[in-house]
Amino acid sequence: MKIAKTEELPVGSTKLSTSQKSAPETDPRVENAVFAELKPGFYSGSNKLLPARAVRDLVNQLGAAVVQVRTPGGLGSGFIINEDGFLMTNFHVIEGETQISVEVYHQRDGQLERKSYKQVRIIALNKFEDLALLKIDEKDAPKFKDYILPLIFLKRLSDVFDDEIKQLADAKTKLILINSPHNPTGATIGDADMETLHDFTAQRGIQLVSDEVYHPIYHGRDTKSAARLPHATVISDLSKAFSLAGLRTGWMIEHDPVRQQKYWNARAYFSICNTNAGEILTEIAIRNRAVILGKSQQTASRNLQRLDHFMTEHRDLLGWTRPQGGMTAFPWLVSGENARPFCQAATERGILFAPGDCFDVPSHFRLGFAASGENFVVALERFEEFIKSWAAKMVTA
């Protein structure tokens, strides 16, 4: 998401604070007053913001509530949400699985001690929100800490709008740009949250632009195009979801007639017309969009399953968040090192990644998984050989 102002922010950035000072000391009386409003249960909470906390304090308080969820097919993360062992994870982590274990890091003498629990029951599933509610059922399991966690981590995106976007948007804000499915992370914005943002921008006269070049390729909940919203501007093209980049054709959906005229005038200065052949092929593609997009979805879904297995096999070196849409993922090196040398070395094996420093996240790298046929299988085989050689190099370094 990008919020454009007179004083422009870097692409992909969220400017919340320019101070490098450590968080102020927390007044226990303030924190206890906030916590006192909480009532037992999964859906209650306080309207007050929690006070600022230092990172070390958060680790000490919340470390035992962060868990790993393991299945024969993969690995995911989750959060304990009450002392009886209920926890939240993603639906895709346990989808179709019957053998689930949870690794919890208990606080012991100031240290985190790992313990695995294999008696885990599925309580509820929501495929469309990509959420799953589990419960640790082992008899010898202790009371788990910190069931206040969901108030901090399991926030709806609409809450983020309230807490951050509304604070960032001011009289200088001219435009807010949304990219969903997002490049490079594959994150998506749900229909209700997009409508919340649309209403917010419309009330303040801020233009909302939705970049939908990867729509409608989804791997979790499907999302409607923002073209249905009266004050949204939608941009897309044939290069991503359609996989027809060579046609160099895109489009814009604009409801405002004044803006429409401005776009026509601007286009007249940049280009007079497209190629006749390109326009003919574009029309053929649009008329057959169900077939073309269906093949793109099938290819992306199949390759994502392969990539999911690959990332599980190499979780000691690579971390990732499984994309919910699009054809790109944004893994990271668990070592935390800059991924550019990693990406440069990969090119010598015929593997091309985009280094994370291009997105201001140096330890990450962008990976595409839209290759058709068996090309992606071959790429993963090369990637696996490279991973092994890289790991060996790191050991001897």
General description of the model:
By secondary structure, this protein is α+β, with helices and mostly antiparallel strands. The chain has three domains: 54-153, Thrombin, subunit H; 157-287, Type I PLP-dependent aspartate aminotransferase-like (Major domain) (Aspartate Aminotransferase, domain 2); 292-396, Alpha-Beta Complex (Aspartate Aminotransferase, domain 1), CATH 3.90.1150.10. Helices cover 33% and strands 20% of the residues. It is built from eleven helices and 17 strands. It has helices spanning 28-36, 55-62, 91-94, 150-153, 157-168, 191-204, 257-270, 276-287, 289-313, 340-347, 375-396, and strands spanning 2-4, 66-71, 74-80, 86-89, 101-108, 111-117, 120-126, 131-136, 175-179, 207-211, 232-237, 250-253, 318-319, 328-329, 332-333, 354-355, 365-368. Strands 6-5-2-3-4-8-7 form a seven-stranded antiparallel β-sheet.
Let me know the average pLDDT.
80
Q: Give the termini separation.
A: 39 Å
Q: Main beta sheet, described?
A: 7 strands, antiparallel
Class based on secondary structure composition and strand pairing: alpha+beta
* Total domain count: 3
**Sequence stretches where pLDDT stays below 50 over 5 or more residues:** 5-49, 146-158
Order of helices and strands: EHHEEEHEEEEHHEHEEEHHHEEEHEEH
Coarse morphology: globular
Q: What is Rg?
A: 24 Å
Order of the strands making up the biggest sheet: 6-5-2-3-4-8-7
CATH first level of the largest domain: Alpha Beta
User: Which bin fits the share of residues in helices?
Assistant: 25-40%
Number of strands: 17
Strand content: 15-25%
CATH superfamily of the largest domain: Type I PLP-dependent aspartate aminotransferase-like (Major domain)
The helix count comes to 11
Indicate the CATH architecture of the largest domain: 3-Layer(aba) Sandwich
CATH topology (level 3) name of the largest domain = Aspartate Aminotransferase, domain 2
